Amino acid sequence: MKLKNFFHNLKDKELLGLNEQLVLSMEQEADKAIAKRSIPGSVVLFLLLSISAFISDIESDIPIFYYTLLSLSILTIVIHLFLVRSLEQQTDESITRWKIKFSLIVLFSSINWSIFSSWALIQYGIEISTLEYLLFTAGIASGAASALFVWKRLAQMYLTILLIPIIIVMETQIADPDSIILGLGFALYFIFLFYQIYRSNDEYWIALLNNRKLEIQTQELTEANRIKTEFLSNMSHELRTPLNAILGYGQLLELDIKDDNQKTQVKEILNAGNHLLTMINELLDLSKIEAGKIEVTMQNCQLNNIIEECAVLIKPLAEANSIQIINNTEHGPSYFAYVDVLRFKQVMLNLLSNAIKYNCDNGSITINIEQVNSKRLRIEVSDTGQGLSQEQQERLFTRFTRLEGHKNIEGTGIGLSISKQIIELMDGAIGVESEEGKGSKFWIEVAVGSETE
User: What is the rounded distance in angstroms from the CA atom of residue 325 to the CA atom of residue 102?
Assistant: First the structure.
């Protein structure tokens, strides 16, 4: 069938916005689907012809007729399998010829069974063995409708060749009232299957079209995301160069200026510049992670010392906000972890910085370590802030997420997202436990290391 004709018959006009490549890819998928679906049908016809020898006298009555049909059935299966295997080698120019050959061999199998079942009806009339043939025929018709509906016209021709001769024979050649009733039943069954083919065909192509459009949209989004990542990476590098110069000259000015008012103004410039540099570095980290360019260098290290270094680095910020840091790891047992030291410090400083920013006045931060099992260590950073709702916790590690009620807090909203991805690169885990009004506890789990000299 021509796929374009199908789309022109659809009521949804939006589906007509297709390019040639999309139509071609859909037709190729349909060809593969129908080729695979139709194989069992040929095998079933051969098996039914074989079974027929045991349920009737046809093999002994007319052996030449029976074995001719059986041989043709075997030949059909062989050609059918050959055509299915040759599908992958077809070009755009040869696919039309392949479809014609494939359709002919499929229709030949229906002719084979139609001749056999019609002759059996004429020869034996309505008896147990022929009723079994009719039951087989109904099953074959149902299977063909479900296997061939992708090519609607082929399915219709198959059913017509298979059922119409049987209906005509039952209505005209057999003088039996039961035959007339069976013929009407088969006619209704024929109409029902035609309707099923139409409906299934429309549903298949619409679903295939929607899947193709979704794939294209996904590819476009992936490409847009790649371009955005490259842009962020390039811009971060470009912005850092002049910003580092600004900060460098700002620090020189701070050393030279004696006037307190001017010194304060220069300090504000440096603070703003450092904050901007932090945000640029976060965007650069994010773009590297998305591009798969960030790497971790794992090594054994003493966790207590790393946490102490982080606590010392964050202490000035905590004191400026009247926040007390309680580091329970300082005098506790020594723990060794297998991590990337630099990246682990980055995550710890992010958690400690957040614990300070979102804490209450004169609050505190507590740091603990515990060994979860023989393979995992857990580091906990608890604060005495206002806590988080369940909805906030669920989206906390999503990039560019800012918490409501904290609009004056500076930041990009990607620190925790980056932290999560870094920890997962180290085969660790990160999470939060919180209750509104009772503070929050952020935890990190990392691999247990071995003691090093």
Answer: 77
Q: Residue 103: inside a domain, yes or no? A: yes
286 exposed, middle or buried (CB, 10 Å; 0-12, 13-18, 19+)?
A: buried
Q: Is residue 289 part of a domain?
A: no
Which stretches of 294-358 are assigned E, i.e. beta strand?
A: 299-302, 324-327, 336-339
212-244: burial string, b at 16+ Cβ within 10 Å, e else: beeeeeeeeeeeeeeeebeebbeebeebeeeee
Packing angle between helix 128-148 and helix 95-124, nearest 10 degrees?
160
Give the distance from CA 249 to its chain's centroid: 50
In this prediction, residue 378 carries a pLDDT of: 94
Range of the structural domain that residue 389 is part of: 299-448
Look at the block and give the residue holding tokens 């008896």: 127
**Whole-angstrom Cα distance, residue 308 to residue 332?**
12
Neighbours of 260 (CB within 10 A): 8
Give yes or no: residues 174 and 308 share one domain: no
CA angle at 29 for the pair 23 and 34, rounded to the nearest 5°? 125
Q: Count structural domains, the chain.
A: 2
Question: What CATH code is carried by the domain that includes residue 372?
Answer: 3.30.565.10
Angstrom distances, CA of residue 267 to CA of 262, 272, 340, 375:
9, 9, 33, 46
Q: Quick one: residue 174, left, alpha or beta (phi over 0 = left, psi -120 to 50 = alpha)?
A: beta
Could you tell me the pLDDT band of residue 428, with boundaries at 50, 70 and 90? very high
Q: CB–CB of 138/185 below 8 Å?
A: no
pLDDT in tens, 97-155: 888 888 898 888 888 888 888 887 887 777 777 787 788 888 888 888 888 888 888 88
Q: What is the pLDDT of residues 270-303, one digit of tens each?
A: 777 777 777 777 666 666 666 666 777 888 999 9
User: Is 413 in contact with 401 (CB distance < 8 Å)?
Assistant: yes
Residue ending a domain, among 195, 221, 247, is 221
**Type of residue at 2:** K
Between CA 85 and CA 35 the distance in angstroms is 9
Q: What angle do CA 389, 390, 394 make, to 5 degrees?
A: 120
Under 8 Å between Cβ of 423 and 346? no
